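Each record in this resource describes a single protein on a pair of labelled lines. An example record follows, reproduced without changes.
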Amino acid sequence: MVQRDQEIQMAHQFDESKEVSDSLYAVQEVIFRDNTDTIKQLFTDYGFLGFNKVGTEGSNNFWLLVQHADHDPKFQETVLDSMVSEVEVNNADGKSYAYLKDRVLVNSGQKQLYGTQVSYTKDFWIIPQPLQDSVNVDKRREEVGLPPIRDYLNQMMEMHFQMNKESFEKDGITAPLRYESQEYTED
C-alpha cells in the first residue's frame, strides 16, 4: 500500500499540464481511499498499530497511510487521539504524531502547532501554513524530536529543487532557495 501511495505522488512533475495533474490526482484519490478502507479495518480489529504490534517500519507505514486519509478527517482524528498514549509509552513516534496533529488542524481550518504542513509560493519558496504561537514553534518541534523549522523548510526546498531541477533551471534557478534566518511571526 505504501509503495502505491508513494509512486503515485512521485509521478507528479512540477510543470505537468492540468490534464495530467487532474488524471494523476484522480488515481491518487482512488489509491488513498482504498488504502484507508484497509487501514480502518486494521485499526478496528487491532487498535493503533504501534511498534509493539508491527515494528517500527510497519507503524510508520500505518501512520503514513493515515496521514494521507484526508478524505476521512474523523478517522484521522480517531487515530491521532489514540496516538497520544502510544507516544507517551514510546510505542509511536512523536514526530509522526506532530505531522498528523498539524494535518488534522489544517484540514479543520485551524492553525498548526509544529509547522509540518507547507505551501509552495509562485516564486519557488516553501512556507509553513499558518501557525499557532509561531514564536515558540521551534520549542514545540524540539519536544517531539523535530529539527528547527528553518532547517525543515530548507530541507523541503532542497528536496523540491532536486525533484524538479530541470523546471527550476529553465526559470534560471540553479540551486535551492534557502532561509538564512528565522522570520516567522504569523499568529
About this structure: The radius of gyration is 17 Å. Strands lie at 118-120, 126-128.
